[in-house]
Amino acid sequence: MLRIVYANLGYSRDIDGSIGHHVRRAHHxxxxxxxxxxxxxxxxRQRLAELQxxxxxxxxxxxxxxxxxxxxxxGALAExxxxxxxxxxxxxxxxxxxxxSVSRGKSNAFLASRPLTYxxxxxxxxxxxxVYDINISGVRILMAHLSLRYHVRCLQMAELARWVGESDAxxxxxxxxxxxxxxxxxxxxxxxxxxxxxxxxxxxxxRLGPYRAALDICLLSRDLRDHCRVAILDQPYSDHQMxxxxxxxxxxxxxxxxxPILVTADAQAA
Length: 270
Fold this sequence. Notes:
Layout: E1 2-8, H1 19-24, H2 34-51, E2 55-62, E3 84-89, E4 106-112, E5 116-122, E6 130-136, E7 139-145, H3 150-164, E8 171-176, H4 187-190, E9 195-197, E10 206-208, E11 211-213, E12 216-221, H5 222-225, E13 228-233, E14 242-247, E15 261-262, H6 265-269
Parallel strand pairs: 1-2, 5-15, 7-8
Antiparallel strand pairs: 1-14, 2-4, 3-4, 5-6, 6-7, 8-12, 9-12, 10-11, 13-14
């Protein structure tokens, strides 16, 4: 079995989405102490120890920014059995943020305990553009965090759909898609019938006071649909829930680790 988990960590600000947390902990958006971050990250690490995933993917994790005291959060999650630990700025590979920029350090990341190959790719539109394109044990995973702006999300999903079409491998597309207008926004990715919406009936994954929405999405190619189990797990330290995906019948196999390739938007255009 191959186990994948995905979670938006909310930069480990220890805000669960409730009105009470947003009011009492509003200052965490301006600055989050290391103690608060370690408390949240400790709960994530505990969950990973319980689940023992082969691949853990994270959105809204901080590589070290002005608002978190320049603390690299992925180091608090990585353990000896993780053979690959990767964290990249989610905005662009080729931008150099000044030390005092609020965008500096805002990242996506993944931890893996099996051999894999991967590419960090950047969508052509929007500000949040990083997509991890991972191949682990013969399964391709595209992990994304899409724009808050509807028209930009439309462009990003159309491009993601083209990327899915690059390979016939069993495929998972997972991440925070910010589907504030509902699952109909997934039409570009579902149009050709190759992918299915695996957590369409699993309930909301995001909370803001009384508001609930399914913003975090797991799509599967049809050749995986009958071999997978999806679960939504509570996260008391974030306003997003965690997605757990178990794929049966996948053995530990794959090519040896290769030197990571970082693809910038300019390189893709060329």
